[in-house]
Amino acid sequence: MSLTAKYLKTRKHTENICSPLHTEDYVVQPIADVSPPKWHLGHTTWFFETLILKPNLKGYQEFNPDFAFVFNSYYESLGARVIRTQRGNLSRPTVNEVYQYRVYVDEAMQQLLSTPISSELETLIVLGCNHEEQHQELLWTDIKYILGNNPLLPAYEEAHPSAYAAPQPASYTHIKAGVYQIGYTGSDFCYDNELGVHQVYLQEAEISNQLVTNGEYLEFLNIGGYKQFEHWHAEAWDWVKNNAVTSPMYWYQIDGQWQSYTMHGLKRLDLNEPVSHISYYEAAAYAAWKGMRLPTEFEWEVASGSFDWGLRWEWTESAYLPYPGFARVPGPVGEYNGKFMVNQKVLRGASAFTPPNHSRNTYRNFFHPHLRWQLTGIRLAR
Fold first, then answer.
1. Same CATH topology for 3-148 and 172-377?
2. CA distance 166 to 269
3. Quick one: pLDDT at residue 333?
4. Looking at domain 3-148, does it have CATH number 1.10.3470?
5. Which end of the chain has fewer beta carbons closer than 10 Å to its terminal beta carbon, N or C?
6. Got the DSSP string for 324-364?
7. Which helix (H) or strand (E) holds 10?
8. Which distant-in-sequence residues (6+ apart) come within 8 Å of 241 by Cβ?
9. Which of 331 and 83 is assigned the larger pLDDT?
10. Share of the chain above pLDDT 70, in %
């Protein structure tokens, strides 16, 4: 696929995700971690305008100079910005203006791509496409949170998903004690936090070939797991009590039946489906109750070829830290991953919302341990 085709396909898919929305859905921001869909549409466009078109397309004029303030996310090197918690207050620019902005930038990008470009610029455009694909996954989960916190619990789309097959009996991948190579070694795109191939020593361990299901997690609820402090880290137990947490996000007990909010509306809880929208706190507590633990990210990477993954992002026991030799590059691209390497846990794998080319076994996702609006689940180790 040509770079132009890759660019246009990526941009179109973002808009396809938003196609079932009503205008009112584009502006809502229920919590700080969830950005309005309109902001995602504008921010991914601002990325191409600011980092690629302005420095590289002769005579390029910004669509609207105010958009740099509105749609910058966290790039300190690129100037002032609307703070994250205020994105939901942006009733202007309108949804229509944001779509016009996308058309304007797409036309300019096609003009740029019709001329010879350097390998460095091509690398930056590929990063921009991968950046937008990351936002596509965020769009799915942010839309789910927006609709799932609407009192009417409306469906994103009405089609009912097929039921998950009954899980197979759990078996375990054995990891022998020894030294293993970690990190990305391919020639295709990867993020800087995957680089720095290095050796790690692992103790002997085993990792389950199955994700924990709703039915299995329900057993934890039924025995009073959210009321028994002994399963929880101290910080996690404070989180449970202070936030009155009693079940995974989107679970509701109605007339004695557990139901869950899905993109297709409120449905009876599928006990065979992998549990989802779990915080690290909950994942670690469940593992402790089972007499097990979560895998480290290195154990996960070594064992990943022997089990299925891609339905849920899987919490690991690893802190999000730089690999040996990691260094931020100068400028805004250097702000992409490195400055977030503190107080976060690594997740491995992918989810049902992840773009296919992001599903590689070296990909390092990361979130704070209390967050659970993403499709996050549990794989056990021992």
1. no
2. 14
3. 84
4. no
5. N
6. TT--PPSSGGGGSSGGG-SS-EEEEE--TTS-GGG--TT--
7. helix 3-18
8. none
9. 83
10. 99
Strands 376-377 and 313-319: parallel
Whose CA is closest to 349, among 248, 226, 208?
208
- Amino acid identity for residue 177 in this structure: A
What is the pLDDT, as a whole number, of residue 166? Answer: 81
Task: Return mean pLDDT, the chain.
Answer: 95
Contact present, 380 and 173 (Cβ < 8 Å): no
**pLDDT, position 159:** 74
Cα distances (Å, whole numbers) of residue 371 to 9, 240, 282: 31, 12, 10
Q: What is the mean pLDDT of residues 1-12?
A: 97
Q: In which band, very low, low, confident or very high, does the pLDDT at 199 lie, cut at 50, 70 and 90?
A: very high
Q: CA dist 315 to 299, 325, 348, 350, Å? A: 12, 25, 7, 11
Q: Are 93 and 33 in contact (CB under 8 A)?
A: no
Q: Are 329 and 192 contacting, i.e. CB atoms less than 8 angstroms apart? A: yes
* pLDDT tier for residue 330 given thresholds of 50, 70 and 90: confident
Summarize pLDDT for 334-349 with one digit per residue, the tens: 878 889 999 999 999 9
Three-class secondary structure of residue 255 per DSSP: coil
Q: What pLDDT score was predicted for residue 162?
A: 63
Cα 291 to Cα 120, 193, 379, 381, 382: the distances in Å are 50, 32, 13, 10, 8
- Eight-class DSSP state of 315: E
Q: Where exactly are the structural domains of the chain?
A: 3-148, 172-377
- For residue 243, is pLDDT > 70? yes
CATH number of 172-377: 3.90.1580.10
- Torsion sign over Cα 291, 296, 298, 302: positive
Distance CA 321, CA 43 (A): 27
d(CA 31, CA 38) in angstroms, rounded, equals 15
Q: What is the structure's pLDDT at 161?
A: 60
With residue 216 as reference, give the H or E element that holds it: helix 214-222
